[in-house]
Amino acid sequence: MEALFSVCSNSLFSSLQNHKNKTLLPFLTSDSRLSSSQLKSQSRVSLKSHDFHDFPPLVASRRRVLKCRSSNEQLETSFDESESLKNGVRRKNLAVFVSGGGSNFRAVHQAILSGDVHGRFVVLVTNKHDCGGAQYARENGIPVIIYPSTKKEPEGLSSNDLVAALSTYKIDFILLAGYLKLIPSELIRAYPNSILNIHPSLLPAFGGKGYYGTKVHKAVIASGARRYSGPTIHFVDENYDTGRILAQRIVPVVVNDTAEELAARVLRQEHKMYAEVAAAICEERVIWREDGVPIIRSKADPEHYS
């Protein structure tokens, strides 16, 4: 089995990190990074392209001011010169996308706070400024960006402005946690093999446009052919639920299950699995086989993969 893998520690994550080795936009400095813990405003952030050009020159204190379009306040941020290392691995900057309560986001965030995930959420993106996930982010000092711009959310960003905003935060990985909009191709090109999504069925079954939330569980039960379901974590491409699968977990479908009962059972496994996968990507334990299949190296036994 090990002959299937081409593993080289020096090239670990090489395909995941192309976006980190180049400046995506001319106005970004090579070492700019926002620290969410220093935010002074709880209002949501709506950034436009010209805001990024307003950054003052680098000074000794390494403090910058970022304009908040939705209020007269300013978001003042300071940059930490040092990188937090764990076993020689830098702490990863994470963005999360949510449209609802964000329970998976909360689960991963709690794993970060407990020290199980060597990363930090530095920004949240949502299409609903008042959703539960956005409220939780503000309560925990994580800035909120609105995307896309709609009649209900006129302060939302364009796709190009979204890429620009995330670039200022020096994002390593993006986690989708119940985000119901299609990810723009501009973002996928900017973060190749670095965007993850969690889906509440065993893909490729019961996936695609229109399959989300309770609708998935109703379809699983109605099919009559399924005795098992469970969550899937996959990399994101330009279509719904078609990217390379990274992890799955089996959950039994019980006789006379309701969609709500099955959803609750699957969700418990989602929370555990997303935290485990977040830990793996932050510790650089995701390996890409020569055939393009991503696998996870065990933390306890580096010779074992799943």
UniProtKB/TrEMBL annotation:
Q: Which Enzyme Commission number(s) are on file for it? A: 2.1.2.2
- Coiled-coil portions: none
Pathway-wise, it operates in: Purine metabolism; IMP biosynthesis via de novo pathway; N(2)-formyl-N(1)-(5-phospho-D-ribosyl)glycinamide from N(1)-(5-phospho-D-ribosyl)glycinamide (10-formyl THF route): step 1/1
One Pfam family name is: Formyl_trans_N
Occurrences of domain Formyl transferase N-terminal (ranges): 92-277
Keyword Transit peptide in the entry? The reply is yes
Among the GO biological process terms of this entry, one is: 'de novo' IMP biosynthetic process
**InterPro entries, per the entry:** Formyl_transf_N, Formyl_transf_N_sf, GART, GART_AS
Top-tier EC class: transferase
Top-level taxon in the UniProt lineage: Eukaryota
The subcellular localization recorded is: Plastid, Chloroplast
Main location class: plastid
Q: Name one GO molecular function term.
A: phosphoribosylglycinamide formyltransferase activity
Listed A to Z, the keywords are:
Chloroplast, Plastid, Purine biosynthesis, Transferase, Transit peptide
Q: Which reaction does it catalyse?
A: N(1)-(5-phospho-beta-D-ribosyl)glycinamide + (6R)-10-formyltetrahydrofolate = N(2)-formyl-N(1)-(5-phospho-beta-D-ribosyl)glycinamide + (6S)-5,6,7,8-tetrahydrofolate + H(+)
Q: Show the GO cellular component annotation of the record.
A: chloroplast; cytoplasm
PANTHER family from the xrefs?
PHOSPHORIBOSYLGLYCINAMIDE FORMYLTRANSFERASE
The entry's family comment says:
Belongs to the GART family.
| Name of this protein | Phosphoribosylglycinamide formyltransferase, chloroplastic
Q: Taxonomy-wise, where does this protein's organism fall, top ranks first?
A: Eukaryota, Viridiplantae, Streptophyta, Embryophyta, Tracheophyta
